[in-house]
Amino acid sequence: MRLQETRWLLRMKNATLDPDEVLSAAEEQMFGLGNSGFCVSCGEEQDGVDPDGRGDECECCGEEAVYGAQELVLMGYAG
Ligand SMILES: [Zn+2]
Fold it and tell me: What angle do CA 60, 62, 66 make, to 5 degrees?
C-alpha cells in the first residue's frame, strides 16, 4: 500500500462525524429535500453532493474525501 493511501486511511479514522447528522442528511437526500455530504477528513458538511458521491474534493480542507450522506450510511458512519 502506498504511503499516501495509508495516511488517508488514518485520517479517515480520525474524522469525527456525528452519526445523527449523517443519518438525517441521508434521510433528507432520500426524500429529495437536500443533497449534503460530509468530508471524512475534516468532518465538514457540504452541499451539492450526490447521495452516492465518493471522494469528492472538500471545499474546506482540499482533500478528496467528501462522501454523500447515503454513502456514509452504507459505510457505517450512521452508528
Ligand atoms: Zn475536508
Answer: 80
The average confidence (pLDDT) of the chain is 87
Ligand 1 is a single-atom ion; what residues have CB below 5 A from it? 39, 41-42, 44, 58, 60-61
For ligand 1, the distance from its centroid to the CA atom of residue 40, given in whole angstroms, is 7
Tell me the C-alpha distance between 74 and 57, whole Å. 20
Q: Which helix (H) or strand (E) segment is 64 a member of?
A: strand 64-68
**Cut 0.85: pTM above it:** no
HSE (side-chain half, CA atoms, 13 Å) at 36: 17
Check residue 27 and give left, alpha or beta (phi > 0: left; psi -120 to 50: alpha): alpha
> What one-letter code names the amino acid at 42?
C
Per residue in 30-52, pLDDT (tens digit) is 998 899 999 999 999 999 999 99
